[in-house]
Design a protein that fits this description.
The structure is a single chain. By secondary structure, the protein is mainly β. It has one domain (20-129): Sandwich (Immunoglobulin-like). The chain is 11% helix and 38% strand. The protein is built from one helix and nine strands; from the N terminus they run αβββββββββ. The protein has one helix at 2-17; strands at residues 31-33, 39-46, 49-55, 68-75, 77-80, 82-85, 90-93, 104-112, 115-124. A five-stranded antiparallel sheet has the order 1-2-3-7-6, with no helix packed on it. It starts with a helix and ends in a 27-residue tail after the last strand.
Length: 151
């Protein structure tokens, strides 16, 4: 029991401490978060609709089997979406007056194949999250390397 608790704690802290692809688009050109042992990928599908893919740990195998998505927008008040499973994703529709291009927070609570995740938070309007904030290393000039001694 103690080992299981340590493992679970380590996994949760690791998920919180490290970005899991939030700086690049997912396989469906959507925005990625890791709310647990799986990833959520969100794509704007219209002025008031999003598609939510539930991907495995390797950003593959979208699934709606034994899965559920709840989505809401928090901006002073909370607006709930109606989410319906499609073939490979969930389509979440917000009320018609909702504009997903306005500044707010999108919260997605998902269960993928029986695994319950934590709330995945996305800033609206959707955009890639910046990396660690460190300045990029300056590029070094190309140097000719001698590989003659390698064979």
């Amino acid at each position: 029991m103690k080992n299981t608790l340590c493992f679970v704690t380590t996994m949760v802290l690791s998920a919180l401490a490290f970005s899991h692809g939030e700086d690049k688009l997912g396989p469906h050109k959507g925005y990625i978060r890791m709310p647990g042992a799986f990833h959520t990928e969100v794509i704007l599908s219209g002025k008031n609709e999003i598609k939510v893919y539930l991907l495995d740990i390797e950003w593959k195998n979208p699934s709606v089997v034994r899965s559920e998505v709840k989505a809401s927008i928090v901006s002073g008040q909370t607006t709930q979406a109606s989410c319906v499973a499609k073939d490979m994703y969930f389509l979440c529709s917000f009320p018609k007056q909702t504009n997903l291009k306005k500044k707010a927070e999108l919260q997605v609570l998902a269960t993928r194949e029986g695994q319950v995740g934590t709330v995945a938070k996305y800033n609206l309007p959707l955009k890639l999250e910046k990396d660690s904030g460190m300045a990029p290393m300056p590029a070094k000039p190309q140097e000719k390397m001698d590989h003659s001694g390698h064979h």
